[in-house]
Amino acid sequence: MAPEYAQKTTQSGKTDDVTSTALLDESLSIFVFQQEEAHKRGLKTTIEMTYASLFSDVVVELAKRDHKKYGDEIALTLLGLPCQEFYKKYKTKDFCIWMFSNEDKERIVDDVFGLFYKKFGFYPESTGSYYLDAYTINYIKKKYPMVKCAIATCWEEGVKCYHTTNNSWYTFIDGGPWAPWIPSKVNSCLPAESAADDCGMVCIPHLSRDLIACFDGNGSNFGTHPQNVLRGMIYKDNELPYLFNMVDMYREQGKYNHGQSYNMMFVGPGWLNKAGRWEQPYELLRKSYCDGLDYYAKLKKAGELVDMTMSEYADYYRKNHPSYLEPEVALWKDVLYGSNKEYFWYYDPFMRICLDFNQGGAIICLNPYVAKLDLPVGIGTGNAYDCSYPYVIQANYRAGYFTHYAGQGTLKSCVIRRGTEEVDLALERTMATYSKVGEDILLTTKPFDVVFSDLTVKMRSLFLFKKGSGEIEFRREILSDLDEKGIEIEDYLVGCYGINEYSDDMTGITLEVDGKRKEALSYAYRMRSLEGDGIARATIPQIHTIVEVGASDPKAICRVEEGIAFSPMFRLSVKKVYQKKGEFVSWLKVKKGN
User: Fold this and answer.
1) Which of the two ends of the chain, N or C, has the fewest CB atoms closer than 10 A to its terminal CB?
2) 260: pLDDT confidence band, cut at 50, 70 and 90?
């Protein structure tokens, strides 16, 4: 009832009061329809009761009925706060729980949980919001220890979404997991590293989203939420094959995650209103919802899907997830445009990272989770609304290989040189295969040709993610014969730090070459560089992060380079010359900086 951002009744000519009878009645009828359609197909649901709905005896009784008859879970969401009672008590139009002051977060949580208990005689085992900050999660777990599952983030909804909503959507949430995780007590975006760091809840993302389209563009158009797909106008003749392809791509991820893949549809009544939405008539909204349920039901009947309530899933995850250090990965192919574009996503307590094999396996996103940044959010914290976790590389916000004029974009790639010619592997389109090496994860590209005017070199790249270490090993294999002129291979990282497109002050960053001789420079936008043996290192005190690049061959040369104000980046690299077949092995490490 009263969807959290339905600030007016969508029927023409009605009032803009979210507490109006017309809106509440319509919302109730749609809720009943949603439940009936799920139950017809033998699917369990989790009913996320809003604060507003708890004041309706009719809704409470319907939830009790479906809980008893179908085994649906009755949960409690911290979305849907707006209603007459909330306005009178809190005298604000704010509705995002994470944006309130810590005092008000506690007050609202106690209010909502208390009312839930009054109506149902028990506390919920599951809760959630569009986003839940660590402070709120920790408070809920302390006061209501029976809560075991929560919706806690919305994957990749930062400035891309902001720009496509006419700069009017003040929920910035980039840098979090796309799949279920156990959050750290320090920051809800971060997977816990140990039992001591475990917040006590299994958390799930607000939606299951397309891990290519959602990163490259506005996430609100790409998810296993039928009305998102309609909003993105990704359908033809009222059919939505993209929705089913996306579900299948999620199912595919089970191959890389111990046989487990997770997918969900989270649809509130506001998305199915009778007047239509997103320029679509109610009939299409209804059909898209039912088509999505039909596909889930078909998979369940074939034994290829297990439906669970939120609390059931939390128990399942606790039982089946191997360890706190076990990464979550996704080798995601393009299911929107049908291209050969392919991303590999990876997160664990040390990092969240993305490799783009359309760019030869270049790293296009790197969030240093290892820093375990405590980033309070809400009124009174100095950060009222932005929940994003900082990055070191973000090719969409700070450019990548392709940049304007003289700049360098953030990227981790490799350049091959022969004389005065050079080829960046970010220009080498390829695909990858996944395998395991013990407990580590290996991605291997298809061979590709590096073409010079007088020689074509066949190469292959391998990326080894070393479990529980914050380290990635890069192998650049030379598969064809060379001559005396040879080639130079340089693995490099161009980085910075931030949470959006705008440059932050790089002053205070230290760049070092650490080998037989240790040299350092303090970032001052003067385009200086250092070169030597050993390790190339950047220490970024603003985000308590250290980034290191090195090679297994002690004869390799490492280098650090300082940027300029027009190109406010730093560059770390390591290189070596080859005159015959072989492989260049380098590595990247992220460490906590304080």
Assistant:
1) C
2) very high
Query: CA-CA distance, 509 to 545, in Å (whole number)?
Result: 10
Residue 37's identity, in one-letter code, is E
Question: Would you state the pLDDT for residue 268?
Answer: 87
CA distances for 195 relative to 94, 183, 200, angstroms: 35, 11, 9
Q: Is 39 helix (H, G, I), strand (E, B) or coil?
A: helix
Buried/exposed code over 293-330 (b: 16+ C-beta within 10 A; e: otherwise): bebbbebbeeeebebbbbbbbbebbeeebeebbbbbbb
Q: How far apart are the first and last CA of the chain?
A: 47
Q: List residues bridging with 460 in a β-sheet.
A: 477
pLDDT of 278 reads 72
Pick the CATH number of 21-324 from 3.40.50.720, 3.20.20.510, 3.30.300.30, 3.30.70.560: 3.20.20.510
Tokens of 400: 């990548």
Q: How would residue 20 be classed by pLDDT, with cut points 50, 70 and 90?
A: low
d(CA 239, CA 412): 40
Q: Domain spanning 346-592 has what CATH number?
A: 2.70.98.10
410, 394 Cβ separation under 8 angstroms = yes
531, 516 in Cβ contact below 8 A? no
Burial class of residue 129, CB neighbours in 10 A (0-12, 13-18, 19+): buried
**Identical fold between 21-324 and 346-592:** no
Q: For residue 101, what are its two tokens?
A: 């002051």
* Token couple for 180: 């279920």
| Phi and psi torsions of 16, nearest 5° | -95, 15
Q: Record the tokens describing residue 91, joined without a space.
A: 């005298």
Q: Would you give the distance in Å from CA 585 to the centre of its chain?
A: 29
- Angle of CA points 162, 204, 393, to nearest 5°: 50
385-388 — which CB contacts under 8 Å span 24+ positions? 385/96, 385/99, 385/170, 385/171, 385/172, 386/172, 386/499, 387/98, 387/131, 387/133, 387/153, 387/171, 387/172, 387/173, 387/176, 387/189, 388/158, 388/172, 388/173, 388/174, 388/175, 388/499, 388/500
Count the Cβ atoms, other than its own, within 10 Å of residue 83: 22
- Segment 40-97, tens digit of pLDDT: 999 999 999 999 999 999 999 999 999 999 999 999 999 989 888 999 999 999 999 9
Domain assignments of the chain as residue spans, ordered by start: 21-324, 346-592
pLDDT exceeds 60 at position 5:
no
| pLDDT score, position 28 | 86
The span from the CA of 28 to the CA of 18, in Å, is 14
